[in-house]
Design goal:
Largest sheet: none
Structural class: mainly alpha
Number of strands: 0
Number of helices: 12
């Protein structure tokens, strides 16, 4: 807590705004938007690589959250106060940091991919890919919603997943079809993570509001495992298109995702089953339903 108290002592309006801006680079909505842009419009293989890293690391982080159940800093020490505007983004348990884990999975993987491709100034790009999530982690500490241990663990979890996933994608040519065995394994891992949280809630070990993120991560992982298998084996939508067509794809896809994520929340309310359903359907929309529409639109344009 001494580190958190130090940062609390130097807070001012400028630093609050600076670190609030930095923490946005670890927000779920931005990370998913970047992955969707790559998946729908630019590079499906890279999007798949990012998804494997993001979901596997996220499942690991969320599993640790519900197993360790370490409260937020202001709960551990009632005399400590976080930056008020950061509290709404600090859902669930504190350890490890989800913002740091997610940003490391995205930007760290992008840096590793570029470095493996031996592009110009690859060392600088890799350094940027590793530095940005570190700054996101620092912002979480400054804002008072995570401890250094939370941040370091989230960072290392994603790196531990990103390195072997990047190595595998770089060393193996893209296969025409997805492996049902790999998809089933990811589905079962995701289901096990959600089930762990549900059992802990049922036993009274944790509260639904604190374990909700874990359940949602598991549901999203199950959606991705199904989506990856079906899209790669059966849909195979094209990513090419004119600038106007690509912009239209992004806007329509984002509108559909927002309708599922927020619209269903208003319709079904907040509960573990509804949260899991929303996140499962959200990923199914991104991975399967919208690609079917993209493929149909591309066929009409070429006919």
């Amino acid at each position: 807590m001494s580190v958190l108290y130090f940062f609390e002592s130097i807070r001012n309006g400028f630093l609050d705004r600076l670190f609030s801006a930095l923490t946005f680079f670890g927000e779920e909505i931005l990370i998913l938007a970047i992955i969707c842009m790559l998946y729908w419009c630019l590079n499906k293989r890279l999007a798949y690589q990012l998804c494997f890293t993001y979901f596997l690391a996220g499942l690991g982080a969320q599993f640790l959250k519900v197993v360790c159940r370490i409260p937020r800093p202001w709960v551990l020490d009632s005399n400590f106060h976080p930056v008020d505007t950061a509290v709404p983004t600090a859902t669930g348990y504190s350890f490890p940091s989800g913002h740091t884990q997610g940003s490391t999975a995205l930007y760290g993987t992008l840096g590793l991919v570029y470095w493996r491709q031996k592009g110009p100034r690859r060392g600088l790009v890799l350094a940027a890919g590793l530095l940005l999530p570190a700054l996101v982690g620092l912002s979480r500490i400054y804002l008072g919603v995570h401890t250094p241990k939370d941040v370091l663990t989230g960072y290392l979890i994603s790196l531990a997943v990103a390195l072997p996933v990047t190595w595998y994608f770089a060393g193996h040519p893209e296969k025409e079809k997805a492996s049902p065995i790999l998809a089933a394994a990811l589905f079962l891992i995701s289901a096990a993570v959600s089930l762990t949280a549900v059992v802990l809630i049922h036993l009274g070990v944790t509260e639904a509001v604190l374990a909700s993120d874990c359940c949602k991560a598991g549901a999203a992982g199950m959606g991705f495992s199904i989506g990856w298998l079906i899209e790669k084996n059966y849909i195979r939508f094209p990513t090419e298109g004119t600038l106007l067509f690509q912009a239209g794809k992004l806007l329509l896809g984002a509108a559909g995702a927002l309708l599922i994520k927020s619209g269903l929340k208003s319709l079904l309310g907040e509960s573990i089953p509804s949260d899991m359903l929303r996140y499962f359907l959200l990923v199914i929309w991104v991975m399967i339903l919208y690609p079917i529409l993209i493929k149909a639109a591309a066929r009409r344009r070429s006919s």
